[in-house]
Design brief:
Distance between the termini: 8 Å
Low-confidence stretches: none
Number of strands: 6
CATH architecture of the largest domain: Alpha-Beta Complex
CATH class of the largest domain: Alpha Beta
Shape: globular
Number of domains: 2
Structural class: alpha+beta
CATH superfamily of the largest domain: FdhE-like domain
Helix content: 25-40%
Order of helices and strands: HHHHHHEEEEEEHH
């Protein structure tokens, strides 16, 4: 793919500038990146491919915290991936039931149970895409033994509208939100952040989201 390096550099600078002003020691280390000229083509490729190893290597060369740098770099490809979803959403394979997004290969940010028909749909936090989610099946390991799948319901709040679905085999989890209709693609990431209390609860019970993408991507990026 050919990219506008100037646009990517501008976006990266804005993201780093905002993040470095956060009141945390990790984010404060990002200010060092503002004083260098990073290889934005390699950085953009790492963002698209969710290449944590490459991103951590770049962070080390800049003297930035790896976790903080990865959190920011993950956002660099989002406008591009959202555009990909707008272009390709209508061509979604009708039988797609993998656990990862068919547009960008990411694991789902959460699942939506929609309307009175209670159709179950996975949502992607990177490109905003959506695809059919098989009921009673782990998105990560494919386990479909209902005896090994659990639901964690919050003690406080409306547990009927938000819960955690976990797999006792791979210890993965997916947040599940019940709503009348799906959220728009550009708000999936915000809805994911709004449910951070569910993520905390899942971690406290020993469940995690897999690191990295659900499907490994590789791209060639040129200016």
């Amino acid at each position: 793919m050919a990219v506008d390096v100037r646009a990517i550099r501008t976006l990266l600078h804005r993201l780093i500038d905002v993040a470095s002003r956060c009141q945390t020691p990790q984010m404060a280390t990002l200010s060092a990146v503002l004083d260098v000229d990073p290889d934005v083509i390699s950085l953009f490729k790492a963002s698209v491919c969710q290449d944590a190893t490459a991103i951590a290597g770049m962070a080390g060369s800049f003297g930035a915290d790896a976790g903080a740098f990865e959190a920011v770099v993950a956002l660099v490809a989002v406008p591009f991936l959202q555009a990909c979803n707008r272009q390709w959403a209508a061509t979604a394979p009708p039988g797609w039931q993998e656990g990862y997004c068919f547009v960008c290969g990411a694991w789902p940010a959460f699942a939506e149970v929609r309307g009175i028909e209670r159709s179950r749909v996975f949502r992607c936090g990177r490109c905003g895409g959506e695809w059919h989610a098989r009921p009673l099946c782990c998105a990560y390991c494919g386990l479909d033994d209902h005896n090994a799948l659990v639901s964690l319901v919050p003690e406080q709040g409306d547990g009927a509208n938000a819960l955690i679905e976990g797999c006792t085999s791979c210890r993965g989890y997916v947040k599940t939100l019940t709503r009348l209709q799906g959220c728009s693609p550009d708000t999936v990431m915000l809805d994911d952040l709004a449910g951070v209390h569910l993520d905390v609860a899942a971690l406290e019970h020993g469940y995690t989201r897999p690191a990295g993408p659900g499907y490994r991507l590789d791209v060639t990026v040129a200016e």
